[in-house]
Amino acid sequence: MNFYAGPGEIALYRTEADNYRRNLESGAPAVWVALQASGGEPPFEIAAVTADPSEGEALTEAGQAIVDAVAMPEAVCDAVARFIAQYPAAPPFSKRKRDRADPELLARRGLPVGKTHERG
Fold first, then answer.
1. What is the pLDDT of residue 36?
2. Is it the case that residue 109 has pLDDT exceeding 80?
3. Which of 10, 76, 114, 119 counts the most CB atoms within 10 A of its CB?
4. How far is CA 66 from each of CA 44, 56, 106, 114, rounded to the nearest angstrom?
5. Rounded to whole angstroms, how far apart are CA atoms 26 and 65?
6. Average pLDDT of every residue of the chain
7. How far is the C-alpha of 80 from the C-alpha of 73, rounded, in Å?
8. SS3 sequence, the chain?
9. Per-residue model confidence as pLDDT tens digits over 49-107
10. In angstroms, rounded to a whole number, what is the distance separating the alpha carbons of residues 3 and 24?
11. Burial class (CB in 10 A: 0-12, 13-18, 19+), 105
């Protein structure tokens, strides 16, 4: 069943640019649309629209809305591509190697010479 629920607005955030980039590079870019019951006519209204796959998945957790991924229109693809072009891809994560521990530094040190250990 297809119906028009009204216009939706997609907000783009620079911190999510890598997610938008992966969406466009997926070969089948999508927009996630969440609908909620309106209690009137039309029976549903748009609750949220996002181009971020992670946010789209998070919308499904609430259980109150109908969420579906739809093909991203070409005009939206172009707008998202222009947006992410402003923000370079994050460098890939690389785990740095820790320095080897120096066992001499970790060894217990004796009491300083001339001092005695007293229990009181």
1. 85
2. no
3. 10
4. 9, 11, 58, 77
5. 25
6. 83
7. 11
8. CCCCCCCCCCCCCHHHHHHHHHHHHCCCCEEEEEEEECCCCCCEEEEEEECCHHHHHHHCCCCCCEEEEEECCHHHHHHHHHHHHCCCCCCCCCCCCCCCCCHHHHCCCCCCCCCCCCCC
9. 999 999 988 888 766 778 889 999 999 999 999 999 998 877 777 787 777 777 676 66
10. 25
11. exposed
Reported pTM? 0.69
CA distances from 9 to 48, 50, 54, 81 (A): 8, 8, 17, 16
Please state, in angstroms and rounded to a whole number, the distance separating the CA atoms of residues 40 and 22: 37
Specify the pLDDT at position 24. 94
CA dihedral 14, 18, 24, 28 (to 10 degrees): -130
Give me 89's structure tokens.
């891809």
Under 8 Å CB-to-CB from 79, ≥6 apart: which residues? none
The sign one gets for the Cα dihedral 16, 17, 21, 23 is positive
